[in-house]
Amino acid sequence: MSEHTESPDKLESMDPATGDVVGVHAVDDTASVDAAVARARASAGWWAGLGFDGRAEVLGQWRAVLTRRMAQLADVVHAETGKPHADAQLEIGLAIDHLAWIGSKAEKVLGRHRVSSGLLLANHSASVEYRPLGVVGVIGPWNYPVFTPMGSIAYALGAGNTVVFKPSELTPGVGVWLADSLREVVPDQHLLQTVIGWGETGAALCRADIDKLAFTGSTGTGKKVMAACAENLTPVVIEAGGKDALIVDEDADLEAAADAAAWGAFSNAGQTCIGVERVYVHEKVHEEFVALLSEKARAVHAGTDADAKLGPMTMTSQLEVVRRHVDDALARGGRAVVGGPEPVDERFAQPVVLVDVPEDSLAVTEETFGPTVVVNKVACMDEAIERTNAGKYGLGGAVFSGRRGPEIARQLRSGMTSVNSVIAFAGIPSLPFGGVGDSGFGRIHGADGLREFTYAKAVTRQRMKPVLNLTTFERTTEQDTLFVTLLTALHGRASQISKRPLRERVQAVRDRRRG
């Protein structure tokens, strides 16, 4: 089955549950992408010049439009992704909440503030502020076509940039709707524009006259984006794949952990980059946890009926990935306690719970992006941490524990971890979102997300004549001597301490902390 009709000049988006065409869009070539970027460049000065208060007012009006017309936008999301209408509204609501945070916090995060000048240049005042880059390109995914790209779009706008957005070829209508809704607020400026197409359109955006590119998608495509952007030395933010783990300690609330694992693994038909794909459970509670999770997995199903909690696989080619990972796990000795290869059909994948799966299987090492989850037992939390950190991805994760949750969370090699909940970090606007390893780099959301779309501007001002002028050819030998004497007084004691053996210095720090 084709997911869309590919032609040189038009793109058809389809309902993945039925195959019906739900939208037809003109494809943007290199010339039209460049034209969109040029329009964005022409509006960038006006947008930056509004200042924080002016931009907050515009973003607030846009937020109100999104809120009032949430159901309409959810209809578009539902039509192009197949996800339940209520789930579409959930991601839109989270995006709206992030917009509110941006409007209220941008000036505090990015505005000019004074910093210490230090003793050597005490006659100077020093300040730093974060200035907009200009035009930001955004390439978004199809699985959360509102919330995920808005993590880049809204924060780039809040920082004072204009945006050119290429949505996924599977969800072009959502991207057009978002741009049109902002144009209703500011009709005479090009703050957010959408360009439509396949990989060629994305490559054209990467090579266009933009100041930064934010990408969300697979690790493989992220590497291609970086290569294209490198031609113009355009910096990038990469939010790529994940293989997130949920750890369950022996003293965890098992009912809550099973409920979180079910949502993390199966919601949005498992098509979530920060979804739960692996669970490591203490051997003392493994059997009970598997029973609870299995009960919850059997209670949900994918379909188009009124009781269906899961929609179709939006990108139907992913069905083959799900089938291959399940088959490989079973062939290597794993067991399916819920589902198996047979629940995967032409459009829908039903929940699958696998146990006793070897750690080198595809279902453990590669991103599945479907409603399957591997639950393996561990002898202790150190083993759970080791297995979690063994993979090449490092996006998010979760820990359920009565006593040791934060301690375990800090040891996980990932950008984000929730304790006694799942995916909570994505919904908190003040927290940065992003990963390490093959999950990418850079951050959206929070203060880090605002700064990601700016450059730091440092300014110094001499307030009085220096007692010791170090930046002149008229500097004397006496002044050089005074400079060395001053440095010795300021930092010499630290160099004496550094002569102590490293072990003694580390122990001294520990002793001070305990004291």
TrEMBL record:
InterPro entries: Ald_DH/histidinol_DH, Ald_DH_C, Ald_DH_CS_CYS, Ald_DH_CS_GLU, Ald_DH_N, Aldehyde_DH_dom, Aldehyde_DH_NAD(P)
GO biological process: aldehyde metabolic process
All residue ranges annotated as the Aldehyde dehydrogenase domain in the record: 7-459
Gene3D superfamilies: Aldehyde Dehydrogenase, Chain A, domain 1 (3.40.605.10), Aldehyde Dehydrogenase, Chain A, domain 2 (3.40.309.10)
Domain of life: Bacteria
Single GO MF annotation: oxidoreductase activity, acting on the aldehyde or oxo group of donors, NAD or NADP as acceptor
Keyword set, alphabetical order: Oxidoreductase
Keyword Repressor belongs to the record: no
Record-annotated active site: E239, C273
Family note: Belongs to the aldehyde dehydrogenase family.
UniProt xrefs under PANTHER family: ALDEHYDE DEHYDROGENASE-RELATED
Listed name of the protein: Aldehyde dehydrogenase
Source organism of this protein record: Nocardioides dokdonensis FR1436
Lineage: Bacteria, Bacillati, Actinomycetota, Actinomycetes, Propionibacteriales
Gene: gabD2_3
